[in-house]
Amino acid sequence: MASRISRFTSDATSHGSTLPVDVFLATPDEAEGEICETVMPKLGARCRILSELLDLADGGLPRRLNVTHFQLKVFAILMSEFDDVFWMDADQMPLEDPRKFLKAEPFRSAGLVTWPDYWAETMSPAFFRIAGVPRERIPVAGWSGASEAAQLLVSKSKHLQTLELAAYYNFHGPTHYYELIGQNAYGTGDKDTFQAAALVLAAPYYKVKTPLQTLGYHHAEDDDNGRWEPMAILQADPTIDQTRFGDGHNHAGFDYVWPDEQFSTRERMQCRVPPAFLHAEQSKPNAESKVRGVSRFGGGSGPRVSARRSGGGGFWVRRRARSVG
Question: 260 and 222 share a domain?
């Protein structure tokens, strides 16, 4: 795990970033001594063990109430010593210096920026009743696409209550809230809990409007008939996205609703907002595999990289893949 995160940290510094980095690891078993003690400090980063920060001896959670997997992210953000937090999962890679997003809109005014996932929003009506959201503030079904929380911008000073409520949803996620918010749809987990918490609290946030792109490759014609294999996700630059599509948040916690007569899915796809992050969701970058020469791709003539855009709202746009390489 730590070796994979060192790849992200190296990518960030290669773009000129001087942001300090907290690398959160779930338990001491995930910490690799040489990387945490030698490599990370050279990159302006440090390893932090979340289980130790949450230990009962430090006034944290009892051991019998350990948090794992999807639950870890929000607690790591809360335990970070930074106010403005730019969270990235270990399989994320910045494509430019991430510092600029912390200094620019929409983050400066909204204090919370999220990115879209493939799928439609799946919050149960029962969730809004349990959360006590007034009827007039309950959004209509299909009001927004789901969030993809592999990257997240959040100001703790502006959204501390949002994070605390998201922590509550995640702490009780496996038994209660993941099913209420995700309804067992694909990708159910922590990713929509931040958006849900902001909505319940009527807190402002900005959700990127540009649909994500999927990168992948085609198998050789004699291998599975040239089937297209998805490998990674590209997410858009939030500042340029806001410039193209407007504010997108109304300071009442509601996601921006796209009027069909104003911006269709096709028009959003054609706006060409440049990508800012790459999420290697299928092929995880791992330094050990590079050293050992293990390739994610099989034999044959090699991959032919292509890109596809999601149409948003949980549906694929039926269009031929556009070659990007």
Answer: yes
